[in-house]
Design brief:
single chain, 211 residues, alpha/beta, seven-stranded mixed beta sheet, 7 helices
Length: 211
């Protein structure tokens, strides 16, 4: 945690017990969840947009879906998670949060999901936080379901600094993923159908506004 992050955290209110429990679980079980800086920035941007329909690719244990649902009491969130263990944990957390009526979670590989079954399309916002090497595929598959002037948000664009390393300095298991992330970033920034920005907040957030 850098000095600025620590300073900002001084002004944050206390978190609900379930949220703290989920954060501890994620840390203990090495489940990647969005950090406070990135999530608070995302919520701040969404407050300007005031979405009523949000599509999330990558539920993990339901942390971000619950945080977003609490921040936007008029919004309905449809979220997709491939991993069975994480999906079941997310279902548990969503039920305990009392938000089952506004968070619709499905266990499915998002790249194989039948988009004809998507409810409440088009969506005001699309949040992509799944396999980083597949971001362009997620973007291409689900962007048609985002309304005009809707916004696509992509987290972990910096991969904890890995995007700054030379290819030879990356672990072999991560090279293809980082190459794909580089390609996606350039592709998104050049995409004339969107006004796209890359913010150095949290682990890097890409924001693409649909023209």
């Amino acid at each position: 945690m850098n000095d600025y992050h620590a300073y900002i955290c001084r002004f944050a209110g206390e978190k609900e017990p379930l949220i703290e429990e989920m954060e501890h679980y994620a840390e203990e079980h090495r489940v990647p969840i969005m950090d406070d800086a990135g999530l608070n920035t995302l919520i701040g941007l969404l407050q300007i947009q005031q979405p009523t329909r949000i599509l999330e690719i990558g539920s993990a244990i339901g942390y971000s879906a619950i945080r977003l649902a609490k921040a936007f009491p008029d919004a309905v969130i449809y979220t997709v998670e491939r991993d069975e263990e994480r999906y079941l944990k997310a279902v548990e957390h969503i039920e305990r949060s009392g938000l089952s009526d506004r968070i619709d979670i499905v266990q499915e590989d998002a790249l194989e999901l039948d988009t004809g079954k998507l409810p409440d399309a088009p969506f005001d916002a699309l949040f992509i936080d799944a396999a980083k090497g597949q971001y362009q595929k997620f973007f291409e598959k689900y962007s048609p379901f985002v309304c005009q002037n809707g916004v696509i948000y992509c987290d972990n664009m910096f991969m904890h600094g890995a995007v700054l390393l030379e290819d030879a300095d990356l672990p072999k298991r991560n090279r293809t993923m980082i190459r794909n992330l580089h390609k996606f970033t350039q592709w998104a920034m050049d995409n004339e159908a969107y006004n796209t920005s890359l913010l150095p907040v949290g682990d890097g957030i890409l924001i693409a506004v649909k023209k």
